[in-house]
Amino acid sequence: MNISIVSIGKLKEKYLKQGIDEYLKRLAPYAKIEIIELSDEKAPENLSDSEMVQVKQKEGERILSKIGQDVHVIALAINGKQRSSEELAKDLDSLATYGKSKVAFVIGGSLGLSDEVMKRANATLSFSKMTFPHQLMRLVLVEQIYRAFRINRGEPYHK
């Protein structure tokens, strides 16, 4: 399986990079994982609604330019579908079984994802109704992908 994590924003925190690198190393026997970092749109703190839409659209264009037509897209969104680790594992296993070997998880910027990206998504995923920094979500996502492969292989780890 080829998995891309397309994310707005550069990861600066060393501790998050180290955690992600550890899980990428652990995932190597299971799947090819690519992390695509895209720059966030520079914007002032207090944006109007129309300015927020413009920022999300520009970031969305960058995201969509990195996703091929044959890719199954899972958008991380606060209002997305919440799944257990076992359900996510089952979803990934089903995708592989039915020939969807290219999967992209999309993490938006601080304002979320554009309507265009959400329309392109084949599924949504929410880890919580809480708001998390998108940099931290990248680490949580990579860990959950690793956990899913361990679950699917019946290997110890996920308890």
From TrEMBL:
<comment type="subunit">
    <text>Homodimer.</text>
</comment>
<comment type="function">
    <text>Specifically methylates the pseudouridine at position 1915 (m3Psi1915) in 23S rRNA.</text>
</comment>
<keyword id="KW-0963">Cytoplasm</keyword>
<dbReference type="Pfam" id="PF02590">
    <property type="entry name" value="SPOUT_MTase"/>
</dbReference>
<keyword id="KW-0489">Methyltransferase</keyword>
<protein>
    <recommendedName>
        <fullName>Ribosomal RNA large subunit methyltransferase H</fullName>
        <ecNumber>2.1.1.177</ecNumber>
    </recommendedName>
</protein>
<keyword id="KW-0949">S-adenosyl-L-methionine</keyword>
<feature type="binding site">
    <location>
        <position position="76"/>
    </location>
    <ligand>
        <name>S-adenosyl-L-methionine</name>
    </ligand>
</feature>
<feature type="binding site">
    <location>
        <begin position="127"/>
        <end position="132"/>
    </location>
    <ligand>
        <name>S-adenosyl-L-methionine</name>
    </ligand>
</feature>
<dbReference type="InterPro" id="IPR029028">
    <property type="entry name" value="Alpha/beta_knot_MTases"/>
</dbReference>
<dbReference type="InterPro" id="IPR003742">
    <property type="entry name" value="RlmH-like"/>
</dbReference>
<dbReference type="GO" id="GO:0070038">
    <property type="term" value="F:rRNA (pseudouridine-N3-)-methyltransferase activity"/>
</dbReference>
<keyword id="KW-0698">rRNA processing</keyword>
<dbReference type="GO" id="GO:0005737">
    <property type="term" value="C:cytoplasm"/>
</dbReference>
<dbReference type="InterPro" id="IPR029026">
    <property type="entry name" value="tRNA_m1G_MTases_N"/>
</dbReference>
<feature type="binding site">
    <location>
        <position position="108"/>
    </location>
    <ligand>
        <name>S-adenosyl-L-methionine</name>
    </ligand>
</feature>
<comment type="similarity">
    <text>Belongs to the RNA methyltransferase RlmH family.</text>
</comment>
<keyword id="KW-0808">Transferase</keyword>
